[in-house]
Specification:
The chain is an alpha/beta fold. It has ten helices and 17 strands. Helix content is 27%, strand content 24%. Strands 6-7-8-11-12 form a five-stranded mixed β-sheet. It has a three-stranded mixed β-sheet with strand order 2-1-17. The chain starts with 12 loop residues before the first strand and ends with a strand.
Amino acid sequence: MPEFGVHNEVGDLRRVLVHYPGRELELANLIPLEHNFRNKVDVIRFQNQHRNLVEMLKQNGVEVLYVGFLVAGDSFSSKLLNQCPNLVYTRDTSTITDAGAILFRMGLPSRRNETPIIRMALHAAGIPIAYQTPENETLEGGSFILLEGRTALAALTPRATQKAIEDLQNFLLTEQLIDQFIQINPPQSVTHVDTEVAELPGKRILVNTEVLEQHPATFWTRSEVWTGSLKEWFRDEGYELIDITQEERDALACDLLTISSDLIIHSTNNEHVVREIRDRGIEVIQIPADELRNGNGGVHCMTCPILRQ
């Protein structure tokens, strides 16, 4: 079995990177808004809910790698841990491909120390860095998705720069890691694209089309560039679209994690969306995540897939 490699959001999850939240949450509680937290958190409750998520992963055959354990031998990274209250959202700092990791430079200034920590953790896990967002440019993993069909989707949000997106597009297409790259341009109120789109097994997409259709998307291949409707592209590619409301979007309806073709982990809210998923023959394990959502993230944000098959 390979050590790493991810092609999309729906392959069988074998290995994942997480960070068990520790004393750094106390920093978030001092200045929640600066660290993009909705409210102060109950640290013990937050840790218990995260522990429950990890236990669900392990019970379903997923190998869990811990950032803190991987960097324990590096004094510089270990000291930085306490300065990074958002480190628990490991999805944002890197995405793993067959060539290695794409390492992002955070758009939120208070998150910039996360990148060197994750670099060290990936090195310790034997995962090479294939590409890194250039200095002075920003892009976060929550605004980047690898879809089925060798396609990547990125969003130009307040946390991203146009050059960062175009440089990543050029790298992925040139290295033939994908065949098509899509950029969407959501309203400035959107921080990450993974609050608006979630790929489900069986060529299905949870999507907030009201937001994504406000501006045309740009499509790149190695030989062509054009603009068009993301909604129509999904339909042309054979996806079934499951629309979510703005209220469901705000409740993090898209913040879910596919374990296999017939199993997803989601939170205990968003019952309508969970019913829609179950009606399509996919089981959903629901876990308490209300405390976790105080950091504006959930199951998807707290997991960085290392290996999917």
